[in-house]
Design goal:
The protein contains 7 helices and 6 strands. It is an alpha+beta fold. It has a domain of 113 residues. Strands 1, 2, 3, 4, 5 and 6 form a 6-stranded antiparallel beta sheet that branches. α4 packs across α5 and α4 packs antiparallel against α6. The longest helix has 18 residues. It starts with a helix and ends in a 13-residue tail after the last strand.
């Protein structure tokens, strides 16, 4: 991907935003303005990791932010991160965040970083439950988007409140 193409894609991805206040309880493709932001963006396939969680009422939010910020900084340095959406916890302590990557390989490299590993170590004390979902985000002819769930085993802890099932076009 040349520099100009990547800059255009990065700018489009940075604008992805929720289109409904209850986005944490919607399918990932329905809760955000993917189609508006990415239909004209220059890409064929991206890699999306969605983190759905329910925080413990006793979670140390300052510690969580510290670990999250360090993992984010390391992910940016690793390269390939197009968008990190850090969701806000709702009144039921539910949260949805996601990372959009140029490739699965870049995401895996960042997930293997020391800061990401340390952040993962505190999940049991911070969350009642969480689940990771992985997708290939594919642009079809005409700019239509397909969120293709990957067959990998989802990582989870506890009982997620809302299972996500989709192979839906956005």
């Amino acid at each position: 991907m040349n520099v100009n193409t990547r800059v255009g894609l990065l700018e489009a991805c940075q604008q992805i935003s929720p289109k409904h206040p209850d986005y944490a309880n919607l399918l990932i493709e329905e809760g955000f303005d993917w189609d508006v932001r990415l239909s004209e963006a220059p890409f064929d396939r991206l890699y999306l990791v969605v983190f759905r969680s329910v925080r413990r009422s006793t979670a140390d939010l300052e510690l969580l932010k510290e670990y999250d910020d360090r993992a984010y900084e390391e992910a940016v340095r690793a390269g390939g991160l197009l968008r990190y959406f850090k969701g806000q916890m709702n009144e039921r302590r539910e949260c949805l965040s996601f990372c959009l990557w140029e490739s699965r390989e870049q995401a895996r490299a960042a997930a293997g970083s020391a800061s990401h590993g340390r952040a993962a170590e505190i999940t049991a004390q911070m969350y009642e439950s969480y689940r990771l979902y992985r997708y290939d985000l594919i642009k079809l002819a005409g700019g239509e988007l397909l969120f293709q769930p990957l067959g990998e085993q989802a990582q989870e802890f506890g009982a997620p409140r809302e299972p996500e099932v989709s192979a839906k076009r956005g």
